[in-house]
Specification:
This protein has about 250 residues and is mainly α. It is built from 10 helices and no strands. It folds into 2 domains: about 1-95; about 100-250. It has helices at about 1-30, 60, 75-95, 100-120, 125-145, 150-155, 160-170, 175-190, 190-215, 225-250. The radius of gyration is 19 Å and the shape is globular.
Length: about 250
């Protein structure tokens, strides 16, 4: 029991460290800024952060959510993304154990976090994020080559339907980034899981957005990226069990 707890603590710490970098990506990618070379700084006064200002979660708490130099309030997004990434990493390893699939899913979770926040704010899915997920899919297909057909069909099974919808409506019904996202994730998950992911994403999007419209007066236009991402992660973690349970009820 103790070794397991230590392992999950290490995974969580690794996850929040990566989560700190994800915050950089979320802020800089929409602005076309360099995510590696530019030093981290306060958005209000430009103060260049020291290493002790960037300890995931703990620095935010120690500084009480304010810049050390000018006292400007820091966005609560920073600890939330860090914590979410750490929790996702733990859930992935707890569900699938340590292996290549868990590594790929951890990287997928991080990419989807960045994609979701950016799409929620800008209604655009960065092409580079979809390209990164596509690379993960190619690795998955290469490491499970005996099932290559499953992944190739997965890359087309949902995306081709969405592509037809995209061109038929001139992009009013679905975004081009969503089409690419489903193609890349389909290559990573395979056809059964990506279909489930899409269905889950549509249900979550419909329910959550209706609630948001009622509660906060949100408009009818919604960013599908975050909801599709939720569906993808649920399918990746528990999809096989959900599908097996469903078909066991039919027999």
């Amino acid at each position: 029991m103790a070794p397991d707890i230590i392992l999950y603590c290490i995974i969580f710490i690794f996850g929040i460290v990566i989560g700190s970098f994800l915050n950089v990506c979320i802020y800089r990618i929409p602005k076309k800024e360099d995510i590696v070379k530019t030093a981290s700084h306060c958005m209000s006064c430009g103060y260049h952060l020291k290493w002790y200002d960037m300890i995931p979660l703990f620095s935010f708490l120690a500084l009480r959510g304010k810049c050390r130099k000018c006292g400007a309030k820091l966005s609560v997004q920073y600890p939330l993304i860090e914590a979410a990434n750490g929790i996702l990493y733990v859930c992935i390893v707890w569900t699938g154990g340590i292996g290549i699939d868990s590594l790929l899913y951890c990287l997928l979770a991080s990419a989807l976090l960045v994609l979701s926040v950016i799409d929620f704010r800008t209604y655009e899915i960065p092409f580079g994020i979809n390209l990164f997920i596509l690379a993960l899919g190619l690795i998955r297909a290469a490491t499970d080559f005996s099932n290559i057909l499953t992944y190739l069909i997965g890359s087309l099974s949902v995306s081709i339907v969405l592509a037809i919808l995209y061109y038929a409506t001139g992009g009013r019904a679905i975004g081009g980034g969503d089409v690419k996202l489903m193609a890349a994730c389909g290559l990573l998950l395979g056809w059964k899981l990506i279909i489930l992911a899409f269905l889950l994403g549509c249900v979550l999007g419909a329910v959550i957005h209706v609630i948001r419209m009622k509660v906060s007066g949100e408009g009818h236009v919604l960013a599908m990226g975050p909801y599709l991402s939720m569906g993808v992660m649920i399918a990746a973690l528990w999809g096989e069990r959900m599908i097996n349970w469903y078909f066991s009820r039919l027999l």
